[in-house]
């Protein structure tokens, strides 16, 4: 056996030994991606639950929320702060999920759910007015997504059966 044949055998052995390592690495990466997707969805569910809890736990804040959807500018200053804090958290969560989507962590069906929620909320004049006061706090890419949803001019119907004219004033 000459040196060239030994080198060829060594290279073949390296390939045969290296290939399973590459398969193992690819499997690990795939599993980590699945875990990241599940974590992203769990994060979304937890954040959603926390936000909804604030509406559920306070009739006063629920009234501010419903009045703010109709007209952000007609809220008193304290109610504007509370409405803004709520929607600030809400839209930062949406923004995080948008970047999860861009990174391939969040699937299209989950992102579709988020888009439909944003579309429903952004159909209300108060939410759109709030967005104009705070969109500069968000990444430009995400702000463009929100602005595109607003430009669609969707009908405000998420709370259409709630008789919003009967919402108590502060």
Provide an overview of this structure.
The chain is mostly helical. It has helices at 3-57, 59-70, 77-102, 108-122, 125-134, 140-151. It has one domain. The chain contains 6 helices and no strands. It is elongated. It starts with a helix and ends in a 19-residue tail after the last helix.
Largest sheet: none
The helix-and-strand class reads mainly alpha
Radius of gyration equals 25 Å
Helix content: over 70%
Distance between the termini: 94 Å
Unreliable stretches, pLDDT < 50, 5 or more residues?
none
Strand % is under 5%
Overall mean confidence score, pLDDT: 85
What is the number of strand segments? 0
Principal-axis shape equals elongated
Please write the string of helix (H) and strand (E) elements.
HHHHHH
* Secondary structure tally, helices: 6
Question: Could you give the topology of this structure?
Answer:
Layout: H1 3-57, H2 59-70, H3 77-102, H4 108-122, H5 125-134, H6 140-151
Helix pairs in contact: 1-2, 1-3, 2-3, 3-4
In short:
With 170 residues, the chain is mainly alpha-helical. It is built from six helices and no strands.
Keywords, separated by commas or semicolons:
single chain, about 170 residues, mainly alpha, 6 helices, elongated
